[in-house]
Design a protein that fits this description.
heterotrimer, A mainly alpha (318), B alpha/beta (441), C mainly alpha (308), A: 318 residues, mainly alpha, MetI-like fold, 2 domains, two-stranded antiparallel sheet, 16 helices, 3% strand, disordered N terminus, B: 441 residues, alpha/beta, D-Maltodextrin-Binding Protein, domain 2, five-stranded mixed beta sheet, 20 helices, 13% strand, transport (chain B), periplasm (chain B), signal (chain B), Bact_solute-bd_prot1 (chain B), sugar transport (chain B)
């Protein structure tokens, strides 16, 4: 299993023509799948009329109006009233007034984004910590019913989230955890910990136990050996696991929409509800989407090696 | 890599700690929950006076209509403390009263001298009472509303169109009085090129997820003579819900959808309808009166380019009821503050300002003012509409009843399945089953 | 899979906590959390499924109704339609994703210049939130202002506003399949790539010696050796799409009519809009048993393929 080598095998090397054709097809596919994302970004810098023009505009004057609309709430006023106001204090103020509106206050976007950060990182941290400990426990000690427990841990992921949410909803209502960050962190941790244990056990199994034994002979306790020997060896696995947990928690929608309503609501249920005066304010939705996608894109690019290893590893393990 | 992990973990643990300590609700702060739409922005403006008078900070949680019922009922059911005050939909009264989610306001009204007789009777009945028609008040009428129509006055006034229409139908092109006329006018405009753009007859409600298609179709069903029950209170729906009149009404709605809805409006409700009108795609559109002040102010299609009319009649005159009352959420930590807001809101001067800012006050001090009818181009229509409103079931089980209707109507109107008779027969069966489970049948 | 013997010789020398204590210390918190947030609610849901409980009627009496909820769910034609919709969705997404995903993996495994970079680019859609991106696809599918219809029109000549991806009964099921395929093909591709790279070189070298054609090598070496991986990808995607909720909810809300109403959306409507908590719990249990059972049968088949 550990022989899986993502880098290369030097088979009968494909001919240059084959390579060129393969490359061309893959690149075309990649570019096509990027079109929706490019369109999200383009829409975020369009003005609302440009965004819904018919046919769609590819050439347009970029504006920050979408971002302004994303961050503020506005009310429509008469031109006379707007004339009577003191001079606008910022770019957004000016853009808004040109549409006969005034800024009434900040929108809920940043608080929701903040909730997403707290809940996603909080639950990832907990899931990975618990997962590492448990994986080590399963890997190194004889735990009663270990096989059953491991399978049980994994099978909890097969439930549709809506099905899980029914009793959770009742339970949280009972304990006052509805619409709290703590409740969401606990829930996401519970969902993620099964994956974390499963992935990390594989990684820890690979670390030769002789290392710890040697350390213990040198006078380390088991705990010290775990901390100083095993953990440093397992960082790649931990990082890969963390990304998976983070992607899940960052993007999760079903639980968030059912179990939060305001104070702990995350960005995914919030973004689709950004509306303008009529239907959805598409530039603002696109701006909110763009900002929301950035962290996960950055993570994907920085940690792509660990990610690849994590996915392929997960596949091989079963 | 290792550093990265450490930073990550440090960051997240700090974040976790900062949230586990719950935020304490401040005593001088109130959160008001409502739908996100034009009148809500007007309420923000209005509430600045309340803050100035009492020093209480107002926070607002506005949810778009398609998610509104879903999310706020969920919030109430989960015993959350998000809202102190709630402007909830009229159909919620039954459930919220029976489950104790709202505070009963009778004693408070008596103590503060707030009289329900000061408000329009239809509004009090629809927005405040449960059981219906009894003097048990769970809300103060906050916002009267009904489904109405608006049209492009400038297009209707074009002489060449006027002439062509007269030749074709033998009457003047104007706001339709009946559903038959409505269909003719809509067909007349559909496919025409106006101002360099292909236009369509009418934007109507077809939304599937919440209540859209039901609210739209009932605007046809009620005038055609649809009734929920043969005898009110008996739940004898057979022959009322699926009567020949009801079938004709539903067929008329589908015919309007088929002939004259712009492309892509297969799942559209208030927002999409406004967009269709504002972008100059449609000659007419149905929507709630609540949006009319904003539309009238619109720089592109407002002013003298827009006209308004009451829902056309057919056999009878009827409009679909909208509107809400303002209630105090029983779970609030700031009961005194919430009641103080209601007391403030009930004052005649505040109600007058509410109407001036774009809210539909239903206080008699506003409605009975001689100048009211002329205060806005849609004010007279509003009075007419409010006198002929009909509402959906307000039963505690309204949500299930509504869902069944949403499914049956959307299946028939948009997804083209079965006939109108079959759709309404199926609806009767759905509703029978629900009332049997309730023990009411 | 585990069952390593505890090295008792070392345990004896350990100071501080015994191994047993550490094992418990390390494993218990996770188990406790899972018991609290997964198992306890599951048992509660089983209990609720035999009652007429409604979460929005706190004052109503809860009565046992025996198997009536299960009977009703299983006899409800709407639920069977939802199951068929789900099956259609799962079948086509898996088929498309496996074919495209495997083809991509095969091409990437040709190791053209820059394949590492392009692999990362291809992966991006699967990192994104299905809800947030699904919501935006609604915009892309608008017949008048959306990009999708114009692109189709550009290549086929069909007028852009003459068809409605989300509004027509015939096209809507394909609209959700397209978005899901766009999002998740990369995932299948990655697993297939892992499979292709697990095939040892010497097998191909031997085939080369035997002068087997490239076509023959593909069908008699590449495909069979990668099959367990492909099957795994199918398993993962199958489970995920059986649970599908967010993307479809935001894209079509189950419409038009009920043509894209997958099982999770029906369940959501029953549980959180109708608040038929007892009945929806029964439905949830049925779904769970179905996916659990199918997955188990499938894993048995998978193991048989692996052992070949």
């Amino acid at each position: 299993m550990s022989s899986l080598n993502v880098t290369a095998h030097s088979v009968v090397e494909p001919t240059p023509t084959v390579k060129r054709i393969a490359g061309a097809i893959v690149i075309i596919y990649a570019l096509v799948t990027m079109v929706p994302l490019a369109w999200i970004f383009l829409t975020s810098v369009k003005s609302p009329p440009d965004s819904i023009s018919y046919p769609p505009k590819i050439v347009f004057t970029p504006t920050l109006e979408g971002f302004c609309n994303l961050f503020t709430t506005r009310t429509r006023q008469t031109p006379d009233y707007i004339q009577s106001l003191p001079a606008p204090t910022g770019a957004c103020d000016e853009i808004t007034r040109n549409r006969n509106m005034v800024i009434a206050g900040p929108s809920n976007y940043w608080p929701r984004f903040g909730n997403s950060l707290v809940i996603a990182f909080g639950s990832t941290f907990l899931a990975v910590s618990l997962g590492t400990l448990t994986a080590y426990g399963f890997s190194r000690f004889r735990v009663p019913l270990a096989d059953d427990l491991l399978f049980f841990i994994l099978s909890t992921r097969m439930m549709p989230p809506i099905a899980v949410a029914i009793p959770i909803y009742l339970m949280y209502r009972q304990f006052g955890l509805s619409d709290t960050a703590l409740g969401m962190i606990l829930l996401y941790t519970a969902v993620n910990v099964s994956l974390a244990v499963w992935l990390l056990k594989g990684f820890i199994d690979e670390i030769p136990r002789e290392y710890e034994e040697a350390a213990m002979i040198d006078g380390y306790t088991r705990l010290q050996a775990f901390w100083k020997v095993v953990l440093p060896q397992a960082t790649t696995g931990i990082a890969a696991t963390a990304i998976f947990c983070l992607i899940f928690a960052w993007n999760e929608y079903a639980f968030a929409v059912l179990l939060t309503s305001g104070s702990a609501q995350t960005a995914p249920p919030f973004i689709p509800t950004i509306i303008g005066e009529g239907g959805q304010d598409w530039p603002a939705v696109a701006a909110g989407t763009t900002i929301f996608l950035v962290p996960i894109l950055v993570f994907t690019i920085i940690l792509r090696k660990q990610l690849l290893r994590g996915i392929t590893f997960g596949a091989v393990r079963k | 890599m290792r550093k990265m992990t450490k930073i990550l973990m440090g960051m997240s643990s700090a974040l976790v700690l900062s949230t586990v300590i719950p935020g304490m609700a401040k005593a001088d702060e109130l959160t008001l929950c409502w739908a996100a739409w034009d009148p809500a922005n007007a309420l923000v403006e209005l509430s600045k006076d309340f803050t100035a008078a009492t020093g209480t900070t107002m926070k607002f949680e506005f949810v778009p209509w398609p998610n509104f019922a879903d999310r706020i009922l969920n919030e109430l059911n989960s015993g959350g403390k998000l809202c102190d005050l709630l402007i909830g939909d009229s159909q919620w009264i039954g459930g919220s009263a029976e489950n104790g989610y709202y505070v009963k306001l009778n004693d408070f009204f008596d103590k503060e001298g707030i009289k329900m007789s000061d408000f329009a009777e239809a509004a009090v009945n629809a927005y405040s009472t449960w059981p219906k028609g009894t003097p048990n008040y769970w809300a103060l009428p906050a916002m009267g509303d009904a489904n109405g129509w608006f049209y492009r006055k400038d297009w209707f006034a074009k002489p060449e169109l006027q002439a062509e229409f007269k030749q074709k139908y033998g009457r003047d092109l104007g706001p339709p009085q009946t559903w038959d006329e409505l269909k003719q006018v809509a067909e007349f405009f559909t496919g025409r090129e106006i101002d360099g753009q292909k236009v369509y007859g009418a934007a109507i409600f077809t939304e599937r997820a919440s209540e859209g298609v039901t609210m739209g179709a009932t605007s046809a069903l009620y005038p055609f003579g649809f009734k929920y029950e043969q005898t009110p209170g008996k739940y004898d729906m057979e022959g009322a819900v699926n009567s020949a009149d009801a079938v004709a009404g539903l067929e008329a709605y589908k015919a309007l959808y088929k002939c004259c809805q712009p492309p892509g409006y297969t799942d559209s409700y208030m927002g999409e309808g406004l967009d269709a009108f504002k972008s100059g795609q449609v000659a007419m559109a149905m929507n709630w009166f609540a949006f009319f002040p904003g539309l009238h102010k619109d720089e592109k299609v407002g002013g003298d380019k827009i006209g308004f009319f009451v829902n056309p009649k057919q056999k009878v005159a009827a409009s679909t009821l909208g509107g809400q009352g303002i209630s105090v959420v029983a779970n609030t930590d700031n009961m005194d503050g919430a009641l103080a807001y209601i007391k403030w809101f009930a004052q005649p001067e505040v109600q007058k300002k509410w109407w001036a800012l774009g809210g539909y006050a239903v206080h008699n001090a506003v409605l009975n003012e001689p100048s009211f009818k002329d205060s806005q181009p849609f004010a007279a229509d509003f009075l007419v509409a409010m006198n002929q409103v009909q509402d959906f079931w307000q039963e505690p089980s309204y949500a299930i009843l509504l869902q069944a209707m949403q499914k049956r109507l959307h299946d028939y109107v948009v997804a083209d399945q079965g006939t109108a008779q079959e759709a309404l027969d199926a609806l009767v069966n759905d509703w029978k089953e629900i009332f049997e489970d309730e023990g009411k049948l | 899979m585990l069952a390593h013997a505890t090295p008792t010789t070392i345990a004896a020398r350990v100071r501080g906590l015994s191994d047993r204590a550490i094992a418990w210390l390390f494993v218990t918190p996770t188990i406790a959390l899972l018991l609290a947030i997964n198992i306890f609610p599951l048992i509660w849901a089983v209990y609720l499924s035999f009652t007429n409980f409604r979460a929005n009627r706190p004052n109503a009496a809860v009565e046992g109704v025996g198997l009536r909820n299960y009977q009703r769910v299983l006899n409800d034609p709407d639920i069977w339609i939802a199951m068929q919709t789900t099956a259609h969705f799962v079948f086509w997404t898996i088929l498309l994703q496996t074919v495209i995903g495997f083809a991509l993996a095969y091409l990437i495994d040709r190791k053209f210049r820059g394949h590492g970079f392009w692999t990362t680019v291809i992966l991006i859609p699967m990192m994104l939130s299905p809800a947030v991106v699904g919501n935006f696809w609604r915009f892309l599918y608008q017949p008048q202002i959306g990009l999708f219809n114009y692109i189709v029109s550009f290549f086929t000549g069909i007028p852009p506003s003459s068809f409605e991806m989300l509004g027509s009964v015939d096209l809507a099921p394909w609209a959700i399949i397209i978005v899901d395929t766009w999002m998740w093909t990369p995932y299948v591709m990655l697993i297939c790539l892992a499979g292709l790279r697990s095939i040892p070189d010497y097998i191909y070298e031997a085939a080369e010696v035997d002068r087997a054609s490239a076509w023959r090598q593909f069908w008699s070496i590449t495909v069979p050796m990668a099959l367990p991986f492909i099957m795994l990808a199918v398993l993962f995607r199958g489970i995920e799409n059986f649970k599908m909720f967010d993307m479809v909810m935001l894209l079509t809300g189950g419409g038009p009519g009920s043509t894209t109403e997958v099982a999770s959306i029906t369940l959501k409507r029953e549980a959180f809009e109708s608040w038929l908590t007892g009945r929806s719990s029964a439905f949830a249990i049925i779904l769970f048993v179905a996916v659990f059972g199918l997955a188990n049968i499938y894993v048995k088949a998978l193991n048989r393929v692996k052992q070949r």
